[in-house]
Design brief:
two-stranded parallel ribbon; binds fe (ii) ion; Ferritin; mainly alpha
Length: 198
C-alpha cells in the first residue's frame, strides 16, 4: 500500500508545471523555491521571537515595529508555497523539515536589549535576501512570473532591513555592526555603537 502511494506521489510530482515552460525546468525552479519557503518560515518565527524578547529603553518602538514585519513575511510564505504547488511541486512547511534542511544555526539571541536584537536581525535579513536573490536569478532564465514574485518580496524585505539598519547607523550613515561575523558579534557591536552615540 505504502509503495503504491509512493508511486502515485511520484507520478503526480513529475506530471506538470505551469503552461508555456518546460516541465523539468519549472519543477527544478519550484524545488529551489523550497529554500525560500524555509528561509521565510524561519524569518517570521525569528522576528516574533525578537518581538517577545526585546527589553530596554527602545522596547516599545522595536516591539511594535516587528509585528507588521512578522505578518508581511508570513504572507510571503503563503505566496511562495502556493507558487510551488501551482508549478507542480508540493511545498513542505513542517518545522522538522525546516530544521533538517536548513544550513544555518538557530537564532542565537534571547532576552536582550533592542540594539542587540537589531544587530542580529540585520544578519538574518541578509541571509534570507541573499537566498531570494539567488533563486530570482535562476527564475529570470525560466519563469518571469516567479521572478516577479521574488523581486517584489525581496524589495519588501530590503525595506524592512533598512528599518532595522537605521537603528544601527551613526550620523555619517556607518553601520555599527559592519565588521561583525556572527549574530553575537553583531549584537555586541550594536550595543557598543549605542554607547558611542549616547
Ligand atoms: Fe505581540
Amino acid at each position: 500500500m505504502a509503495g503504491k502511494q509512493n508511486t502515485r506521489k511520484k507520478n503526480l510530482k513529475d506530471s506538470y508545471t505551469v503552461p508555456g515552460i518546460d516541465v523539468e525546468d519549472g519543477q527544478k525552479l519550484a524545488q529551489q523555491l523550497q529554500s525560500c519557503l524555509h528561509n521565510l518560515n524561519d524569518l517570521h518565527l525569528t522576528l516574533k521571537h525578537a518581538h517577545w524578547n526585546v527589553v530596554g529603553p527602545k522596547f516599545i518602538g522595536v516591539h511594535k515595529m516587528l509585528d507588521p514585519q512578522v505578518d508581511a513575511v508570513r504572507e510571503m510564505t503563503d505566496t511562495v508555497a502556493e507558487r510551488m504547488a501551482t508549478m507542480g511541486v508540493p511545498p513542505v512547511g513542517t518545522p522538522g523539515a525546516l530544521v533538517r534542511d536548513r544550513d544555518w544555526e538557530d537564532y542565537s539571541i534571547g532576552l536582550a536589549q533592542a540594539s542587540e536584537h537589531l544587530g542580529a536581525l540585520d544578519r538574518v535579513y541578509s541571509r534570507v535576501i541573499e537566498n531570494h536573490r539567488r533563486v530570482l536569478d535562476m527564475a529570470g532564465d525560466i519563469d518571469p512570473i516567479t521572478e516577479d514574485m521574488l523581486i517584489g518580496q525581496t524589495g519588501e524585505m530590503e525595506q524592512y532591513q533598512w528599518f532595522v539598519r537605521a537603528h544601527l547607523q551613526d550620523d555619517e550613515g556607518q553601520l555599527s555592526t559592519s565588521s561583525a561575523t556572527s549574530e553575537k558579534e553583531a549584537a555586541a557591536q550594536a550595543m557598543e555603537g549605542d554607547r558611542a552615540i549616547d
